[in-house]
Design a protein that fits this description.
single chain; alpha+beta; 2 domains; 4-stranded mixed sheet; 14 helices; 45% helix; 10% strand; binds iron/sulfur cluster
């Protein structure tokens, strides 16, 4: 089995203490069973601190679901005021649970390759993905060590007909999205087909789970009479929106280009409605609230 990723993937670095919107707050960090066992078997004062920061909830499974108990301000109990992680400082990066080790990376498992990406919920990933000006391409990367499946245990298989068709369609959509012989607004219309209007997108956003009040404020300002396509062709934004479209198409191969176009237009609706908010801040809020919730993506898909 091999792994492949967009060309920018190896350039990603977490900026840790310099991060203004750390991913170590406001999200419950689930601890995978392997790491949980490791924490239970560690000795010393710090191990006691780790164990006293964990709760195991009954999720119907034999082991339950373990996670760190967030502090009242929503921060992980291992996160220091300077933005560094006490767990890494005391025990090294290898002591991190899988979620912390992987974030903001995501993995799509195909029959013959693991596709790796980094997500737009991370403020260090956003400029890398959206500012990429070398064209979209894939490169081979090392197999992800802590991903859901151990790559050594994954048998490489010939993709079946459906998988082949899905990924061919995905790759064609990426080529269309990247073809600058047409304006980006035209490419989106071509790929998306019969797209919702801004009013329908706002209705859908209101139905989704939201994690932050900042995100609610951003989408609540959407003016349903505004035209989100104008922002796609604005030279100030066109590279970022093109890269965003390619990212959504790449990340959601099975959901298809229509979903990617609706996600893109949700961001465009928000950009027009929030001229004083930085594009990267809107994208980060969108991705953290909408994209990083499986149920939200499933819900949007079910409305299409
Ligand atoms: S959001 Fe990104 S840069 Fe910030 S702490 Fe998390 S991984 Fe690091």
């Amino acid at each position: 089995m091999r792994a492949a990723a967009p060309s920018y993937y190896p350039l990603f670095r977490c900026i840790a203490g310099a991060c203004r919107h750390t991913c170590c707050a406001n999200w419950e960090v689930d601890i995978d069973p392997e790491t949980y066992d490791k924490y239970m078997n560690m000795s010393g004062a710090f191990a006691e601190r780790i164990r006293s920061s964990i709760v195991v909830e009954d999720d119907g499974s034999s082991t339950g679901e373990a996670h760190f108990v967030l502090k009242p301000d929503g921060r992980c109990p291992m996160l220091r005021d300077d933005g560094l992680c006490d767990l890494i400082l005391a025990c090294g990066e290898e002591a991190l649970c899988r979620v912390c080790d992987e974030h903001p990376r995501f993995f799509n498992y195909r029959s013959d390759v693991i596709e790796c990406g980094i997500g737009l919920s991370c403020e260090a990933a956003i400029p890398l993905i959206l500012g990429w000006d070398k064209g979209f391409g894939m490169i081979d990367v090392p197999l992800p060590g802590g991903s859901d499946l151990d790559p050594d245990d994954v048998m490489e298989e010939e993709p079946d007909e459906l998988e082949t068709e899905v990924y061919e369609a995905r790759d064609n959509a990426i080529r269309t999205a990247s073809d600058r012989s047409a304006a980006l607004s035209e490419r989106v219309r071509m790929l998306g087909g019969s797209l919702w209007d801004s009013g329908r997108r706002l209705e859908v956003l209101k139905k989704l789970e939201s994690l932050s009040q900042e995100w609610v404020s951003i989408y609540s300002r959407i003016d349903v009479a505004a035209d989100p396509f104008t922002v796609l062709d604005d030279p100030q934004y066109s590279l970022q929106f093109e890269n965003m479209l390619v990212y959504f198409i790449f990340r959601y191969p099975w959901e298809g280009a229509r979903l990617a176009c609706e996600l893109l237009l949700m961001v465009a609706d928000c950009v027009i409605a929030n001229p004083s908010v930085d594009l990267f801040d809107i994208v980060r809020e969108f991705s953290s609230n909408v994209e990083y919730s499986d149920c939200n993506i499933d819900d949007i898909q079910s409305f299409l």
